[in-house]
């Protein structure tokens, strides 16, 4: 029998082009769905910066819609044109750029901290014809990192103040306690001899003198403990001023100052002659919370500390300006030279010409609290040109306005 017509070898099977096209379409659909639905901003642009395509996240980030993207040139989204040139240099040199830091802006001019990861797009001749990449908006992340760093620095400050000053405070009672115990040990023999001698008048006098010395040491201990408590309260106020949520309500500045003046009189009137001349303004309203009282009581406290201990006179006045209420608090203290005024509000600063315990935390508190209410605090001479006649603190606070 002869061989059958045709080759005995297996014939090649024709490719299933229909199936291949179907898979390609499915692949394109998957890519397009991923491109559109991913939360990061994808883009495709030409070499000269024209947008060819961008996903929904890109449109939302830059405040545009799909119809507008082809009218955008990405060069216009750069805050600094030099960043664009540097980006192109890198991506064209390496073919890929990862997490390139740059400031971009949307159509409304809002600036954003971003990171770009992009690759070059090439034609058949291996020439660059465009770029494809992803933009990550890290504005909030950077803001959070900065806030965390500031919080870390602030808490380190609180710890340093507490450790340094509190150690100093505790050392004083420790010294007085040791002296008291030694005095008791040394004097017991004296008391016994005097008592046995029958000279009761001498005995009572010695005991009375020793008790007086003991009382002085106890009073000194008590004063130091009060300062330590005041330090803790100041640190607590500073923490609240910088880290608690602002829940402000409309408050009357005149009522606040009257309350603070009443408090300061109750605190000092029995200890030193204190005169406060107040000129208020009933219609002065601001937005504030309960910490506002600490702002003014700290200014009053500082003024009294640096004043003549035999007599203290303060002048308190509310002044009206266009956008702010100004509160002027002047004293009769030894004053602050102009070159040293900025140091009053610095951390760990204490003016050299004043013997006051602590590390100048009052000034830090005043500045921090004023800034909490979007205000500011400055210092002037009570008598212009002569700082030795006293100091005037000026606290400016924004006026309450009805929205």
Description:
The chain is an alpha+beta fold and 403 residues long. The chain folds into 3 domains: 117 residues, PAS domain (Beta-Lactamase); 101 residues; 150 residues, Histidine kinase-like ATPase, C-terminal domain (Heat Shock Protein 90). Strands 2-1-5-4-3 form a 5-stranded antiparallel beta sheet, sandwiched between helices. A 5-stranded mixed beta sheet has the order 7-9-10-12-11. Helix 5 runs parallel beside helix 8, helix 6 crosses helix 7 and helix 7 runs antiparallel to helix 8. 21% of the residues are buried.
Search tags:
alpha+beta; Heat Shock Protein 90; 5-stranded antiparallel sheet; 23% strand; Beta-Lactamase; elongated; 403 residues; 8 helices
In CATH terms, the superfamily of the largest domain is Histidine kinase-like ATPase, C-terminal domain
Mean pLDDT over the full residue set: 80
Strand line-up across the major sheet: 2-1-5-4-3
- What portion of residues belong to β-strands? 15-25%
The geometry reads as: elongated
Distance between the first and last residues' Cα: 107 Å
Q: What structural class should be given to the helix and strand makeup? A: alpha+beta
> Strand tally, please?
12
Summarize the amount of helix as a percent range.
Answer: 40-55%
Q: Per CATH, what is the topology of the largest domain? A: Heat Shock Protein 90
Work out the count of structural domains: 3
Report the sheet with the most strands, covering strand number, pairing sense and barrel closure: 5 strands, antiparallel
Uncertain segments: 348-359
**CATH architecture annotation name of the largest domain:** 2-Layer Sandwich
Number of helical regions: 8
Element string (H = helix, E = strand): HEEHHEEEHHEHEEHEEHEE
Tell me the radius of gyration: 38 Å
């Amino acid at each position: 029998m002869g061989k059958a017509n045709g080759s005995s070898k297996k014939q090649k099977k024709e490719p299933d082009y229909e199936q291949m096209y179907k898979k390609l379409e499915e692949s394109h659909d998957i890519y397009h769905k991923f491109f559109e639905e991913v939360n990061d901003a994808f883009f495709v642009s030409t070499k000269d910066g024209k947008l060819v395509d961008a996903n929904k996240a890109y449109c939302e980030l830059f405040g545009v819609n799909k119809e507008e993207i082809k009218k955008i040139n990405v060069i216009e989204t750069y805050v600094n044109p030099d960043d664009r040139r540097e980006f192109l240099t890198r991506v064209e040199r390496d073919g890929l750029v990862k997490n390139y830091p740059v400031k971009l802006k949307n159509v409304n001019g809002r600036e954003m901290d971003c990171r770009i990861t992009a690759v070059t797009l090439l034609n058949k001749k291996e020439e660059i014809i465009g770029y494809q990449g992803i933009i990550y908006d890290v504005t909030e992340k950077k803001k959070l990192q900065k806030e965390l760093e500031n919080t870390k620095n602030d808490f380190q400050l609180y710890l340093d103040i507490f450790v340094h000053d509190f150690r100093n405070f505790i050392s004083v009672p420790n010294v007085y306690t040791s002296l008291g115990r030694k005095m008791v040990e040394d004097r017991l023999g004296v008391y016994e001899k005097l008592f046995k001698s029958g000279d009761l008048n001498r005995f009572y006098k010695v005991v009375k003198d020793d008790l007086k010395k003991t009382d002085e040491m106890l009073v000194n201990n008590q004063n130091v403990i009060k300062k330590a408590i005041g330090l803790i309260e100041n640190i607590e106020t500073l923490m609240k001023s910088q880290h608690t949520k602002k829940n402000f309500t409309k408050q009357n500045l005149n009522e606040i100052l009257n309350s603070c003046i009443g408090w300061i009189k109750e605190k000092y009137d029995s200890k030193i002659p204190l005169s406060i001349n107040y000129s208020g303004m009933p219609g002065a309203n601001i937005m504030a919370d309960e910490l506002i009282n600490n702002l003014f009581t700290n200014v009053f406290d500082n003024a009294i500390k640096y004043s003549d201990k035999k007599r203290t006179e303060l002048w308190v006045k509310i002044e009206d300006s266009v956008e702010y209420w100004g509160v002027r608090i002047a004293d009769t203290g030894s004053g602050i030279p102009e070159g040293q005024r900025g140091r009053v509000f610095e951390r760990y600063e204490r003016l050299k010409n004043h013997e006051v315990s602590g590390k100048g935390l009052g000034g830090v508190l005043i500045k921090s609290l004023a800034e909490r209410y979007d205000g500011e605090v400055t210092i002037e001479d009570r008598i212009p040109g002569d700082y030795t006649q006293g100091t005037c603190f000026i606290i400016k606070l924004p006026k309450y306005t009805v929205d």
